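Extended Data, panel c. Modelled sequence:
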Amino acid sequence: MNRLAGRSVADVLPGKELGALSRVPVFLGGPVAVDQLVFASFKWHPETQRIACRHHLGLEEAQESVRAEQGAVRAFIGYAGWSKGQLEGELAQRAWLVSKPGRELLEIERCENLWRDMLRGLGPYFQLIADAPDDLSRN
């Protein structure tokens, strides 16, 4: 789950005619290529109760996905990448919190609180982390 960057696509790509894509929130994607904006689309499949993801969409493809309402489009500053077997190793070490996603993950109005809401749902310990201020000196 990625946190919001506090900006929209229009903020990151000023002066471009983006239509509805301009209102898409930008998330912090990861430590790789932090000077790039990456688009992904997500679509909920009710029959399988899963979310399908198409990533590294081009600008025009992201605009078309928003226009056609083909699921949720998200923008990310940077991305995360792993070498072969690295992610599997991290999962085996329990370095990641894993949770089955629900359809509500795709609701744009949930974006602002989504990270904290998801973390709170993992139990009391994680609720403490979710409710902690980003700057712990303000605690």
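The chain has a mean pLDDT of 87. This feature is highlighted in the accompanying rendering.
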